[in-house]
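In the current project phase, the collection of sequences with tokenised folds has grown. A sample record is quoted in full directly below:
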Amino acid sequence: MSNESIFTQASDIETLREMIRDAVHCHFPFKESRPKIICLHIVGDEVVTSHNYCLLDS
């Protein structure tokens, strides 16, 4: 079995799973050659502020 990279994206994990299955089916049209297990490498971006804001009562 060879390792193949297939890229896809989605806005939520459930949609991502559907997109992955669809991409794998397109990349491996014959069931015999299709991988039985799909390993995911999920990379996410996180946004943080550079300052801690403290709001004081006036």
